[in-house]
Amino acid sequence: MPLSETHTNLLRQHILERLQTKLQNVISHPALDFDYVNFLCTHEFILVDALADQIDLPLDVVDGLRELCCLNSTDEADNAEDLQELDIDWETALYCNEFHQESGVVVPEFPSPLTEQDIRHLQAVVDPTGPSDSHGHDIYCRCLQIFQ
To answer: What domain of life does the native source organism fall in (predicted)?
Structure first.
């Protein structure tokens, strides 16, 4: 259901104020935490991207967020050289003849919370490969709404 113009404007204002407050808080600390800046920018960019169908944010704000995400991830890639190299003999580790059947991650089995009827209903109503304007977010929300 499309939002009314008043609701759209209120949502836009709330998102911009929220973003401004969060960025001011993170920048005002004497010791700038780049990991948190990256987390914040990525989180806010995902939120803005998810709401792109509902509201139009100024393009310079969206581009600025995208740029901050890219700058921070570039810094992390540059710092990867500074990481201490592990003491692993890669030549022998790669050509190890031993194979362990029990290696890997063991995920315990648990019963599905959905009944067979629920699963059939979900498969009939929701097409997981259908078109999505929000990278599958709308399909996921539709699935949640069915069982709430």
So the answer is: Eukaryota
